[in-house]
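Note to self: keep these together.
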Amino acid sequence: MAPRPSWRGYLKLSLVTCPVAMLPATSDARKVRFHTVNRATGNRVHARYVDAETGKPVDDKDQVKGYERDNGEYVMLEDEELDAVALDSARTIDIDCFVPAESIGWIWYDVPHYLIPDEKVGEEAFSVIREAMVKSNTRAISRVVLYHRERAVLLEPRDNGMVLWTLRYGDEVREEAHYFKGVKGKSDSKGKKQVTKLIADHTRDWSDSLVTDPVEQALRSMIKAKQKRAGRSAKKSRAAKGDNVIDLMARLKKSLEGGLQHRA
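Structure:
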């Protein structure tokens, strides 16, 4: 089953507008997920917000966003105030500009999404924008509200659709030169030759099997084994209860027969 669009809106370039749908390009739905459970009862445990000083639960209506100041006090912001600063990019990807495809470094790319035309009427405009980016070897830069906040995004033509990447903000990226400074740049030619041969001997075609999660596989095996043991225990328990019922009926029948014989 194809995933449902996570976002619907419009792609706009100057006077050209077309309806588009965004779908997640990645998924963690198959990851093993755990709940916190009461060991004694087997019931789920629910988390509650409590006041850090009084320890008393705080109702939903009393919970508010707070920005911590240097003195430890908080500036409180209501939902209406936070909504007021959101721009008009909630449902429109309005292309601001284009950049050369090779000019943006890998570190700026964040989360990928697939972008497709949402209606037949918009396919022509969508295709024109995509093909123009292919021909000019450029990427489109815009902004849109995702995950309850405005994000800078990049549009990349891909096959018959586009990939929309959310981008990291400038204050989120650390300069690599600060970390690589002082690292030896040149290597021994003999050693490089040996390692180059080693790389050639171990080079293979890319496959998603190269990035399987061994911890995930181990967890699933562990859970499956526990389920089997639990099933065997339950079966033995049911069988034991059945034996008890049979034994009880047999004893009752024997007692009744003994009583009848005694009265006779």
